[in-house]
Write a structure and sequence with these properties.
The complex is a heterodimer of chains A (about 200) and B (about 375). Chain A is of the alpha+beta class. Chain A contains 5 helices and 8 strands. Chain B contains 10 helices and 19 strands. The chains are: A alpha+beta (about 200), B alpha/beta (about 375).
Chain lengths: ~200, ~375
C-alpha cells in the first residue's frame, strides 16, 4: 500500500508527532490500528467523520483479504482523502522534526500581502502568552492561500528538521488545520438543540 | 479626592457601606467588579489575568478574602466579544446563585444556533466568545427552575433591586441598552454568521459592531455610577448613546464615577452623556485595547477625556510593544526571518480601584492603582 501522508496539526497533540512520509508501505491492518488509536483524540463531529472513514477502511480490508486481517493488500490509497486530519506511523528511515516553539494561531484579518494572526504560545506552560504577528501571504502554499480567511486556524512551529542522512536544518512551518466541513446534519442538529436551549432559558 | 500609592490588589475589603468600582484590563479584555454595599457585588464581563490565566474577578475576591458564591449577586454579560467574556463561564460556576443578565438577543434561537455551530465545530486552546457563551448557557440549563432564566437587558429595565440594610443603602441596577433597533439589527447580523454546508470549519468571526452592548446605571443610595461597556455612537437618534441620552425613561441623576465606553474611542463618545448623565469632573476609568493596528485610546482620545474628567485612570500602560517573552536564539532568529517581530497581544493585567468614604463621606473617592495602571494624563 502506498500512502502519501499530509501532516496536519490537531488541537491537543504536539507537532512533533506529525511527520511527513512519502512512499511508506504499510498493511491495511496497520492503517486500521492507527486510525482507531487516533479517534480517541478527536472531538464531536471530527470523531464521527473519522469513524465513517474507519468503517470504509475496515470494509475494504475485509473485502480484499477475507479472514486474514494481517495480510498486506496491494491497494493504492489516497490517504489524505481517507484521513486528512493526522497520522502517526511506525517507520524506519524518515525525516524527523524537533520543535523548539509552537503556537496555535487564528487569522484576525487577511490583508493585501499579509495576514494578521493572534497566537497562543503552546509552550508557555502555566502562563498565558498571547501575541500577534503579520505573516507574508507569499510564504503560504497555493492551497493554503485559497482557504485562508478570518477565523482560519493554524499551527506554527519552529524547530529543527533532521533528514535520514543526518543533516539538520532550522525550519519554520505553518500548517493550516484542514478541519472537516460543516454538514447539513450537524447544522440541523444544532438548530434543534438551539430551539431546546432557547425554551429552557426562557423558563418553558 | 484622595489617592494612594500603587499597591497590591489584596487588602481589606470595602466596609459594608462603602461603594467600590474596580476595573481590570489587560488590554484585550475588561472586567468591572462593583461593591453595592453589605458584601453584595455586581460583576460586569470577565477577563483573564495575563499571568495566572484565571478570571480577574475571581482572583480579586480571593485577594480580598471573600467567597464569590456568597458575594456575587449579579453577573452581567455586556456583549459576546472575546475581549469581554473570557472566563465568564468559570465565574458563573463559582457563583451558582448569582443572577445572570444579558441581552435577550443572545438567548434567541437564531443566535444560539450560531453558538452551537461554532463552539462544537472546533476545540480551541483558548476559548472564543461563543465557546464561553455556550458554557454559560450550559451551566444555566443545569440550574433548577427559574434560576436558569437570564434577566434580559433592554433599555431602562431594572435588573437588580436590593433593599437597604442597617449597614448599607438600597441599590438599583438598571440596564440602559440595547434598544429595540439594535436588537433587530443584531439578529440581522446573526443571519450572516450562518456557516455554509461544506464550508471548512473555522473560528467564529469577530462581530463588527458593539451596539448590542449593555450599558449599566448603578444607584446605591444617592451615589450613582455609569458603566459604559463597549457601547458606541453612530449618530442615529434611535440607537447607541443617542437613544439613551434622549430617552425620557432613563434613570435621572449625575454619575460620580464613569467607566468610559469602548476603551475611550471617539465612537464611544457622546457629548450628551457628559452633559446630562455625568457630574462635572467625575472620576473616570477605562481599559486600553490593542489588536493589530488598532490601539485605543489614542492620544487625542485621552486629551478629549481629560478635558471632561481630569481625574481619569487607565488600567494598563499602553502600548504593549514588543513581546515580553524571550526565547532561544534559534527561535528568535526564525521569528525575525518569518514575521520580523511578535507583538505582545496585551500588557500585563492592570487594575484601578475606586472606593468612596461610605455613608459618612459618599463623595470622597479614593483611587488605587495596580502596578501597570496609571493616570490617563501620563499618556498625553
Amino acid at each position: 500500500m502506498i500512502i502519501s501522508t499530509v501532516a496536519a496539526a490537531s488541537c491537543d497533540e504536539p507537532f512533533a508527532d506529525f511527520e511527513e512520509t512519502a512512499g511508506q508501505q504499510v498493511s491495511a491492518s496497520d492503517l486500521v490500528h492507527v486510525i482507531t488509536h487516533e479517534l480517541s483524540g478527536l472531538h464531536g463531529g471530527l470523531a464521527e467523520a473519522s469513524a465513517r472513514r474507519l468503517r470504509r477502511v475496515r470494509e475494504t480490508s475485509r473485502d480484499s483479504a477475507p479472514g486474514d486481517s494481517t495480510a498486506s493488500t496491494a491497494q493504492i490509497m489516497d490517504f489524505a482523502s481517507l484521513y486528512p486530519q493526522r497520522i502517526a506511523l511506525p517507520s524506519e528511515a524518515r525525516a524527523t522534526f524537533f520543535p523548539l516553539q509552537e503556537w496555535e494561531g487564528y487569522v484576525i484579518r487577511v490583508n493585501q500581502n499579509s495576514f494578521t494572526a493572534r497566537l497562543v504560545d503552546l509552550t508557555a506552560g502555566a502562563t498565558r502568552e498571547e501575541e500577534e504577528a503579520d505573516f507574508p501571504l507569499d510564504d503560504l502554499s497555493d492551497s493554503d492561500r485559497k482557504v485562508i480567511r478570518a477565523g482560519s486556524l493554524f499551527r506554527w512551529a519552529i524547530g529543527y528538521r533532521r533528514a535520514p542522512g543526518g543533516s539538520k536544518e532550522r525550519v519554520s512551518r505553518i500548517v493550516f488545520r484542514r478541519l472537516p466541513a460543516w454538514t447539513r446534519r450537524e447544522l440541523d442538529r444544532n438548530r434543534q438543540d438551539a430551539a431546546e436551549w432557547a425554551s429552557s432559558l426562557a423558563g418553558e | 479626592m484622595g489617592q494612594l500609592p500603587r499597591r497590591r490588589m489584596n487588602g481589606p475589603p470595602p466596609s459594608a457601606d462603602q461603594i467600590e468600582l474596580t476595573l481590570f484590563g489587560p488590554g484585550y479584555g475588561e472586567c468591572a467588579v462593583v461593591h453595592l454595599g453589605a458584601n453584595r457585588w455586581l460583576v460586569v464581563d470577565s477577563c483573564l489575568d495575563s499571568v495566572t490565566g484565571r478570571p480577574a474577578a475571581l482572583a480579586y475576591f480571593e485577594a480580598l478574602g471573600l467567597d464569590p458564591a456568597e458575594a456575587i449577586r449579579l453577573i452581567t454579560i455586556s456583549h459576546w466579544h472575546d475581549d469581554h467574556i473570557r472566563g465568564v463561564s468559570m465565574l458563573v460556576s463559582a457563583a451558582p446563585d448569582a443572577a445572570i443578565c444579558c441581552s435577550a438577543a443572545i438567548t434567541r434561537e437564531e443566535f444560539l444556533s450560531r453558538v452551537l455551530d461554532y463552539s462544537r465545530a472546533v476545540a480551541l486552546k483558548y476559548s472564543s466568545g461563543l465557546h464561553e457563551i455556550a458554557e454559560v448557557f450550559q451551566r444555566l440549563r443545569g440550574r433548577p427552575g427559574s434560576d436558569r432564566q437570564p434577566r434580559n437587558a433592554i433599555a431602562n429595565r431594572s435588573v437588580l433591586t436590593m433593599a437597604a440594610t442597617d449597614e448599607a443603602d438600597d441599590c438599583v441596577v438598571t440596564t440602559l441598552s440595547p434598544c429595540d433597533r439594535e436588537f433587530e439589527r443584531f439578529l440581522g447580523t446573526v443571519a450572516g454568521m450562518v456557516p455554509a454546508i461544506k464550508e471548512t470549519r473555522r473560528r467564529a468571526p469577530a462581530p463588527e459592531r458593539n451596539h448590542l452592548s449593555v450599558a449599566l446605571w448603578v444607584k446605591v443610595g444617592a451615589v450613582q455610577l455609569l458603566l459604559g461597556s463597549d457601547l458606541e455612537e453612530c449618530g442615529d437618534p434611535a440607537s447607541g448613546w443617542s437613544a439613551i441620552v434622549g430617552s425620557p425613561e432613563r434613570p435621572q441623576g449625575s454619575a460620580s464615577v464613569f467607566k468610559i465606553p469602548h476603551h475611550g474611542s471617539k465612537t464611544g463618545h457622546h457629548d450628551g452623556v457628559w452633559e446630562s448623565m455625568v457630574r462635572r469632573s467625575p472620576v473616570a476609568v477605562l481599559s486600553p485595547f490593542h489588536s493589530g493596528s488598532v490601539r485605543l485610546p489614542t492620544q487625542r482620545d485621552a486629551a478629549r477625556i481629560l478635558e471632561r474628567a481630569p481625574e481619569s485612570y487607565i488600567t494598563a500602560r499602553f502600548p504593549a510593544g514588543a513581546t515580553r517573552k524571550r526565547r532561544s536564539a534559534a527561535v528568535e532568529r526564525t521569528i525575525q526571518e518569518t514575521v520580523g517581530r511578535l507583538r505582545a497581544a496585551q500588557p500585563r493585567t492592570g487594575w484601578v480601584r475606586i472606593r468612596n468614604g461610605g455613608r459618612a463621606d459618599p463623595d470622597n473617592w479614593t483611587v488605587e492603582k495596580g502596578v501597570n495602571a496609571c493616570a490617563l494624563s501620563a499618556l498625553t
